[in-house]
Amino acid sequence: MGLNALWVMLAAILVLLMQGGFILLESGSTRMKNAGHVAGKTIFTLGLASLVYWAVGYGLAFGGEASDALNKFIGLGNFFFTPDIASVDNGLPNSVFFVFQLAFAAVSLSIAWGGFAERAKLSSYLIFTLIFVSVIYPVVAHWIWGGGWLAADGAQDFAGSTVVHLTGAIGALAATILLKPRIGRFNKDGSANVILGHNQVYTALSVLLLWVGWFGFNAGSTIAIGDGFFGFVAFNTQLGAAAGAVAAMLISWLVNGKADITAMLNGALAGLVAITASCAFVDPWAAVVIGLVAGVLVFFSAKFFEKIKVDDPIFALSVHGAAGIWGTLANGLFATEELSAKVGVGQAGLFQGGGWGQLWVQFESVAVCGAFAFAASFIVLWVVKKAIGFRVTEEQEIIGLDLSEHGSYGYPEQMKKAGTNA
Asked: How many CB atoms are closer than 10 A to CB 385?
């Protein structure tokens, strides 16, 4: 147990460090007048999420006894969690398991912030963190990972294409619908204006940090190192990410006549998101296929959301939503009988001789978890909008959230030269 605990603790640290990747991704993809706000609210909400998950979220996700009838739908126990050195969860000291799961919850929350970008009040971040980490995310996590009803059905989501990524993306979707587009994003005739991020090097560095952190995400979810299976999971993870990056770059080059760097970066992340559900269930060739499809899908998904006038500054809906759905469904096509038996979840997919059963379970998990996350997120944010206001004023948005919400700029010297629209 000692080496396994060390491995998972190191994996948890890698996943927590992904928050640095999200800071660089969101700040680089938006304007410099909001960069300090992005960094500050990410650290603030990580701290708040940690306390909320300790008090309530972990208990709803993983509390309760498997024999309890209510446990099919929600966990009840381990509130204000106190680790017991002698206690073991999933073969690990329960303190290590808690930190690992907390890191996952924090990633899902950071994904949701993509829908808030450049126009939401800081108070709305606070309220949404409280509800998302205490109720919305834990319910989905319990259904699939905590012994809930989807787990009983055999839903395959090894490291969270649905639990982490789709849930966060759906929160972002609810937010961006209620907030409406940023000032200047779309013209009255419906045509779109490109609002460029201020630092593409930041976004590239963010993808590299997230890519490395993903090995903690996926390989760490094996919870053990003795049989070397974590290496197989890491192998598939790398193939999925690589295929996604290459596919997105090539399709952008073919369609636009230019090799779009942003599209490539989104493709790498989409490949990672898609392979997250299936990295332990599929053969390497299938990991490549999953990544290739994710890279193409994220490119056209981004164009689709722009066409219907949904403002998605960080591409959360395409990278984590569309690719999360695809990655989850892909298990229903490519999961092998041998690997499903090794993980102990579900059965072979359609293309591996398993019939339609697993594909249906995967579709069921996407539909139900997505619907719950959207309904809950939309209701919470609608109440926020009506009660205290969700969006900053037009003047505050033009000035930038650095100054309007925090009283200082992330780039004070540059902002003096550039003016408030930078």
From this structure: 15
Residue 357 makes CB contacts below 8 A (sequence gap 6+) with 347
> What domains does the chain contain, in order, with CATH numbers?
2-418 (1.10.3430.10)
pLDDT tens digits, residue range 371-417? 999 999 999 999 999 999 999 999 999 999 999 999 988 887 666 65
Are the CB atoms for 351 and 385 separated by under 8 Å?
Answer: no
pTM for this model (two decimals): 0.95
**Residues written for the chain:** 422
Does position 14 have pLDDT exceeding 90, yes or no? yes
CB atoms under 10 Å from CB of 188, counted, come to: 5
pLDDT tens digits along 143-168: 999 999 999 999 999 999 999 999 99
Give tens-digit pLDDT for 272-319.
Answer: 999 999 999 999 999 999 999 999 999 999 999 999 999 999 999 999
Radius of gyration of the chain (CA): 21
* Eight-class DSSP state of 88: E
Do 164 and 108 form a contact (C-beta atoms < 8 A)?
yes
Give yes or no for a contact between 175 and 115, defined as CB atoms under 8 angstroms apart: yes
Up-side HSE of residue 73: CA atoms within 13 Å toward CB? Answer: 3
User: Which amino acid appears at position 35 of this protein?
Assistant: A
> In the chain, count of helices (H) and strands (E)?
19, 2
CA angle 129, 130, 131 (to 5 degrees): 95
Strands 88-89, 92-93: pairing kind: antiparallel
Rounded CA gap, 264 and 11, in Å? Answer: 26
251-290 burial: b if 16+ Cβ within 10 Å, else e:
bbeeeeeeebebbbbbbbbbbbbbbbbbbbbbbeebbbbb
Decide: helix, strand or coil at residue 336. coil
Buried b / exposed e over 149-182, threshold 16 CB at 10 Å, is ebbebbbbbbbbbbbbbbbbbbbbbbbbbbbebb
- Interatomic CA distance for residues 285 and 323, integer angstroms: 18
Of 265, 248, 260, 241, the C-alpha closest to 299 is 248
* Mean pLDDT value of segment 328-357: 97
- C-beta separation of 144 from 151 below 8 A: yes
